[in-house]
């Protein structure tokens, strides 16, 4: 007897099997076609090219699943076993098909290794499924919501795998060739059958059961949550990118499409989500029991896009039979979207690079264009921004008032300087944050830096407009700001707000002119933490005065997660003599949002807890004397929270500049 | 239902440093930011809500120069269907002349309902609505803060003193001067305003409306404007709470407010 795989042993109705297999593959193809059509219905496509980084991501986070292991080893193990079990069995099936129909190569030792690998894959799959079952239904991992599909997908795959072994086992019970030990799984299962006669009688039934179940699984695959195994790799390959700048005058204006303008990556995001719930765990809004959850939002968006862009719904006959009435069409409920602080924490933990905040911006855009779902405070703030170039005060005059008593050259009034300090609206106007600007100016003056500001002519960078989905206003502000930079030949900018820094650096439309004038060199914008770090490194600023204080640092989202600046502010803090530093429970990439981002500063949304109070309590728990931050929004939110949480006596809220200025002996700037 | 809504572009004066121009008959407006008159914003929103509910057209009308078209674009972006700007040319405008010109223009438009703001933020006379209704010969209701359409009639709510509300019914056609707070005006996006550029906006000249010289003669002439003279500064009390309280009581008694 030759050592090789035996196909269709004792099965007679082989033709029937081929017909069923063809149907199964056809249904699979239709499902895949629907999914791809939904992806391609995106208002903006991604350029697909060869990306080394993409392949790297695919290996690290896809094949190895390193982000699944992170923070939850058993989740990682479970996924690793199931995924590699599946991949092993899939490759096995492909090789076996090639062997059967094309080239006979799975013979002798090759076959034995092949057989052994398949046995291992089968066991890995079953072990993974068992682990998944334990996690969901016995250990009851809190972040998993167990829906019906989760249970029966597990059962179907498990039964399919077990019957696979059983088919093999029954056959081995009759044949039992001498190379049996390479099919150790089958041998194990063959023990279940008592006699050869029984095995021969049972075999066709088990074979057909296994075959039908497997074919059903293939057919259902693209419609089920298993589709993530095709969507997630694409998402990883493309990387966690958001479309930089969606110009609103690209012709889509005339289309008058009512729905959100989701991009290609948004669409893939929706179909790659498996509801693992990690986003919910880290979402500051969900944690504070506000009526928002990134997972639910993504699920709604998935339902909505799969319904709206389903190519079958365009066929009237199918639409009337297969689809729900339009009145029952899935919707993305608009109330939830304003709660997202766009803090990016969901993207940080998502194993497959999904972030809820970008698609949320596109749903916000629909609400903004409709106009009637926008809260009165936000309406007022955006109107003020449009007319007066800042979201705070209906006046352009107050912009430079913070600098009273300080020498600050005005670059728009003829002053020349190397560096432009772009103060930003909030820092300029809010009475608490004005102190940040004053301290920073004193430090720069002390370090002998040639700097100036744009005085009253300074614009709003448009970040708020961008976050709340007011794309038209954002474009307008971006245009105004870049024109201003150009007009005064500004090539080097430092800003107080991580929000301005991020939007100018990463989201402004690419413009030739932003390269600045030839002699000025390429345009660059930095956050003040980067400048402080540089000044301290160079020795231009030497904090000398002892500041005996224990501090903790609150990472602003737009500095940390958005721009990967975690070390600079900490380095500055460590350079100050006498200061000791402790970290909060959430810090660095795991930092918790203060609740002021994403346009929430200009809305009155409330949940059970205030986001800023959750954060300030965490800061207080470190036992620090002060919480230091480096963002005007965070400063306002935390300063407010320290009062409402009645921690004012034990905890101080400081801006990094105030701490540095104190150590330099530059006036009493830590006053609130 | 054909609705005409009158709107006005006004300077935003809250927080602005007002100065007089050289004629001393007006304030300097060149450095002021212009916005839609607050009351008119509510009127436009109300008109659009009626249209959305029971169909019809909304026409926004303004009496102003070319730069005031911004207020019409905004109204179109909110949902108005058409807009008309009446150019006043060199005419001197007061509430009477304004009403006469508006009346001549509105007469040529189909109107079951005319909405205006209860007053304008710049001149605050609050009479254009009444004058306009009189000239159009239709029912007029001032300071409306609630409105419900019921087969050809409108149920009106007006706030009286002491939180009392008066509900009445008027037949159409009618002019309603809208009070702020009647609704929550929607947000008007920049894209919306840009797109509204495609909607119909007609310009007519005020002097081509066939009005008589008497109609165009202002009844109110500003002779002089001046800033209120500075008076002596306020007295700032200092001391602890007990002595402050005593001092306040004695001042109030001194001024005769406390017997």
Describe the fold and architecture.
The complex is a heterodimer of chains A (672) and B (259). With 672 residues, chain A is mainly alpha-helical. Chain A folds into 4 domains: 14-236, Fumarate Reductase Cytochrome B subunit (Up-down Bundle), CATH 1.20.950; 256-370, Fumarate Reductase Iron-sulfur Protein, Chain B, domain 2 (Orthogonal Bundle); 390-534, no CATH class; 540-663, Rossmann fold, CATH 3.40.50. Chain A has helices at residues 14-40, 52-63, 66-69, 73-101, 108-138, 148-175, 184-190, 196-220, 228-238, 252-255, 264-272, 278-282, 284-287, 294-308, 316-322, 345-349, 357-370, 376-388, 425-429, 434-446, 463-467, 471-487, 498-507, 528-538, 567-574, 611-621, 632-644, 656-663; strands at 419-422, 451-452, 492-495, 524-527, 549-554, 579-582, 626-629, 652-655. In chain A, the strands form 2 sheets. In chain A, strands 2-1-3-4 form a 4-stranded parallel β-sheet. Chain A has a 4-stranded parallel β-sheet with strand order 6-5-7-8, with helices on both faces. In chain A, strand 5, helix 25 (567-574) and strand 6 form a beta-alpha-beta unit. In chain A, helix 2 (52-63) packs across helix 9 (228-238). Chain A is elongated. Mean pLDDT of chain A is 89; it is low at 243-255. Chain B is 27% helix and 26% strand. The model of chain B has no long low-confidence stretch (mean pLDDT 92). Chain B is built from 6 helices and 11 strands. Chain B is an alpha/beta fold. Chain B has one domain (2-208): 3-Layer(aba) Sandwich (Rossmann fold), CATH 3.40.50. Chain B is globular. Classes of the chains: A mainly alpha (672), B alpha/beta (259). At the A-B interface, helix 17, helix 18 and helix 22 of A face helix 5 of B.
